[in-house]
Structure formats: structure tokens, C-alpha cells
Description:
Blueprint: E1 3-4, H1 15-27, H2 37-56, E2 65-68, H3 71-83, E3 91-95, H4 100-111, E4 115-119, H5 129-135, E5 140-144, H6 158-168, E6 171-175, H7 187-190, E7 194-198, E8 209-213, H8 239-273, E9 280-282, E10 293-298, H9 308-317, E11 320-321, H10 337-341, E12 352-356, H11 363-388
Parallel strand pairs: 1-11, 3-4, 3-5, 5-6, 6-7
Antiparallel strand pairs: 2-8, 7-8, 9-10, 10-12
Amino acid sequence: MQIYLDYSATTPTRPEAINMMHTVLTQGWGNPSSLHEWGQRAATIVEQARMQVASLIGAPWHESIVFTSGGTEADNLAVMGVAQLFREPQHIIISSVEHSAISEPAKLLENWGWEVTRLHVDNKGRVNPDNLKAALKDNTVLISVIYGQSEVGTVQPIEEIGKIARSAGVLFHTDAVQVAGRLPIDVRKLSVDLLSISSHKIYGPQGVGALYVRPEVELVPLLNGGGQEMRSRSGTQAVPIIAGFGIAAELAAQELPIETPRLIELRDRLFSQLADVEGLIPTGDLIQRLPHHASFCLKYADGQKISGKTIVRQLNLAGIGISAGSACHSGKLSPSPVLTAMGYSDKAAMGGIRITLGRYTTQADIDWVAMVLKQVMSRLENRFALVTK
């Protein structure tokens, strides 16, 4: 038996998206910028996908969707696209639990003389909107706060943050890669100016994402050339995977009312079954949380012989796929910056694990994984007891 529970890292491409991509590869392979029939056929496919993606996030203007190579490029375009509007360094605000696609561009801006404020979070990983108000300055030009934290599952008060940003006249971006297709999104209600999403998190193909750009918001493009994507992202569009993204977005929107409560029920069942495991400490906000997301910190993590990767390897031997904290850091034996920002020690921050559910996860999967994880933790606790005697 093999059970995949790493849906926050990537999701399997759904058959409908694969079928659409095959159709486009064989029948709609023209260049969307060409004026002849082949080109216009491809252009129609791209615009259809743009409308499908816009609908998923409640964007009334499909022209506000800029296709990118994924969530990372969308995040970079949001941050650097705003920053390059200014000749002199300004001030931006991010949270201390951002994905590296935001935190790394912020470091780059600091090297260029920009001031970056990193908002503290509580021990559940949530930003306090009052701290945001206090951090605003006359030269603040951008706020970027992640919507749903991929490592610990915490959902931020984005609507409240959006209102603060809008009343202050500051542009507001949120990375909604983990939220899209799992919770309802309405960009107008959230008062966001920029919002990033990714295809392969919603059962679409890898290699394509999108940045929502509110009309009248100006960005400097990262890529210059032919002026595609409303002059925001030059380069011939990858029509097949954009089409697959569109289908995945449309189906995600349709399935949301049923799939979200189902995932919440499975997530809570997992938390409940593991509640008596002393060595597993739940991380993140258990209420304001992504519906598909469970995460824990190992009580016995020592940063050397026992870490989150220890559990990942043990479960992998049992045919179960999970991750050690954020997938983007899972290859490095170093403290999770997200957990350290939440107040965990360096040793504890090496003991994070993440179990994320998806459309193919069943109740039987949850029960089996809980049983196996209990056995693994029991062996680990015995081992720890022997070492400490």
C-alpha cells in the first residue's frame, strides 16, 4: 500500500487537465501572438484559461491574470515589480513566516538599501494586524503577507490586513498558493492588489502559475521582450500547460463546496487520532488553518540523530509520503525559519513534519497512517529513553 500525503508540495495532475493538454499539443499548438488561424486558436485557449483562473479567485477582470512559470515567479514579480518602480530605496513589510519566494527577494532589496520590516508572529504563526499598523511608514510601498502558511498551516487575517493596507494607500500582496482551490477567495473582498497562485497545487500541471494584478496597479516586468501578458511578462505563452491550469482551476472552483469540508473532517480525524501521542506536538493555529493541513513538532528532536527527516524516512519505508516541514527546506538539516519565528528552539525547529491531504485521500488512509505513525513514534520514544538512561 502506498499513500501520498504531501499535497502541499505538489498534487497529481488530474486526468481532465492531461486530456486538455494533449488536445492543445495536437490541435492548438500555434503561437498566441500570431494573427493567422493557428495563432488565434491558441490565443483563444489562453484567454479561456485566463477567465477560468480569474473565476477561481473572484476576479471580475480576466485581464488581471498574468500567467507565470509558477508561484515563485508570481511572488517575485509582485515584490520586484513594485520595487523597480522606485529610483530610491523605500520600505516594505512582510511577515516573518513568508515562503522563500518572498523572503529571498526581500533580502535582495535589503542589499540594495531598502528597509524591510518582518512582522513578528505569535506561537501559532499568526500576524497581529495592530503590529502592521504600527510598522507603516510614510515610505512604505508594499505589504506582503502569506495567506496560508505551507509549513504549519496557519491562515492569516488577510481581509483585515487588506483593509489596513487599502486605507493607508499601500499596495498589498498575498501568496495564496496553498489557499487557492482549498478555501474560497474573492480578491475584491480581501482588498488585495496582487495575489499569487500555482497550478500544480490544484491538480494542474507543474511549470505554470499566475499573478493577479488589480487594474490600475503598475508593475515593472521581470522579463522584457515581446510584451506578452499585457506587457507584464514577455515570452511566448506555454499554451498547453496554461490550458491545463485553466481546467484545473475551473474544476477546483466547482468542487470547493464539497471538497473543503471533506478535507477538514479528515484533517481533524488525523489530529484526533494522534492527540495521545506524547512525542508529537501540533504546530500552527488549529482553528484558523488550511483545511488539508496537519503539522507537528517532534518532542525528542535533537537536531542530529532525531529530526523531522527521521520520521519522513520511516514513513517512506512504510509506503507513506509526507514532508519534513516545508518541502523547499526539506533537503537541508537546518532549523526551520518558520518554526524559529514562532518561538521554537533550534532543536525543536529541526523536528517539524507536515502531513497534507488531497482529493485522493480516504478515511482508511488516515486511519492507517495514524496507526503507522504511532508505531514509529513508539519506537522513537523507546530509543530516546535508552539514550537518556
